[in-house]
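Retro notes - structure team

What went well: the batch runner handled both jobs without manual restarts.
What didn't: labels got mixed up in the shared folder, which is why I'm recording both outputs here explicitly, each with its sequence directly above its tokens.

Job 1
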Amino acid sequence: MKTDESTPYQRLVQELDHRCQQMATGDLCFSTHDKDGKFHLFYGRLLYVTTERHQVRRWKRAVLKYCPDWQPSSALLTFDQSTTPWEYQMLYEGVAREKISLTQAKIVIRQVSLEVLFSLARYTDISLEWKPSSEKKTHLSLGLALSFSEIEQIFTRAAQMQQQWQTAGLSSIHPNLSPASKKKLNPQSLSGLAQYLDGRFTLWDISLRMGKSVISITRALVPLIKKGILQLRQIPDLSTPLPTPTGATSASVRSPQTTPKTPFLIACIDDSPVVAQSLRKILEPAGYKVVGIQDPIKALAQIAEQKPDLIFLDLIMPNANGYTVCQFLRNAPLFEKTPVIILTSQDNVIDRSRAKLVGASDFLVKPPQPQETLELVRKYLPQSSKV
């Protein structure tokens, strides 16, 4: 009989790989004797990693390091943490509103994941539980959530860091601990390190502020700890940036006498602004509203925010293709029933068949002709406005 000699950390990697290959949506919950948390997955991609300990500290460190000029606002969030972590929602808003770049947002997710996995790599008692979710309403971007290949790189780096930590003789110390001096130190001593030894900062925090690795910072403090000059202690997390609900919102208690009609919103995802303009000239006089989206990467974030009633989708775009975008939309509960009409100049049986396979509702040849376009839109949106 073959014995399973894989470590709990390796089994965690294998379980995540399995869920990613399944294109699973849900939370992979992990638990140790003193730590609990979740890997939040959406169709096999990692949205974010959360833990009960120092969740806010970890988030603020990563944002301060990689998005120093950004001031995240919680005013526009849905605050439904049961479906999507607030950290991910803030990153989404930052990218969608062009306050931070997609690269910055992904680095924040990677850094947070790295710190969590660095801690997990030392445990021998990791238990796992998969909690699937049949519906997960969230703002999404194909480029923002991490694929397993990206996750695997973080796992490898975290294991290497933990090995270096152990080799440096720091196995009895956790970087979430805060060093506090038992006597007053000169702020200029220890190359400026002394100013952070007042029990307000964790070793992770000090590493960020000093611009040095957490291993080098901790090694520098070990002699003071052994001499009893410093003591390591647990400190609480920072306050959450989310507002505390005080009751029903104005929207939830508002009961207007009449509900105004709203025009149906139609999104045109096409790298050419000419196509969107052509659709506007055809559809807006008929009472529809058309929004043009040229960037295929930012498109998913924008349509998630605006929730169009119908989508025109180009097949050939820079860095993406319409088939991939269409399939992703169909896999997302938010858009699984939204009519998606493929726009292309390639009118042939192969393209039409492939479009149907990925869930396209219909097919429209470029350039769009007024009568054909209106008939197609009215087929899926019979009225020019909705209540």
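Job 2
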Amino acid sequence: MNPNLLAWLLVATSVIAEVVGTVALKYSDGFSKLFPSATAAACYALAIWLMAASMRHLDMGITYAVWASSGTAATALVGVAVFGEQLGIVKALGLVCVVGGVVMLNLGNQQ
């Protein structure tokens, strides 16, 4: 398998681990519940490890930008879908700006 493709798959898996960890953090009730707290810690550790492994083949700047923005957008959407959080026009535009910023970073990387 192409090392860059594998690295991007690691980034995607890292984002999933981060989002799962954040959902577990919500359920941890301020780290007062053992299972969700342990799940959050394990998922965050896995997310960081996977991202570090992906950086063996990818540039740090774009990797972190994709990871952070994807995690932010996915977490916001999970909040809307699972926890009934509001998605107003300002929040939606903010998510568009986050994704647009990463696209611009990636395009700037091609110069």
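One thing worth noting from job 2: The longest helix spans residues 3-27.
We'll revisit the folder naming next retro.
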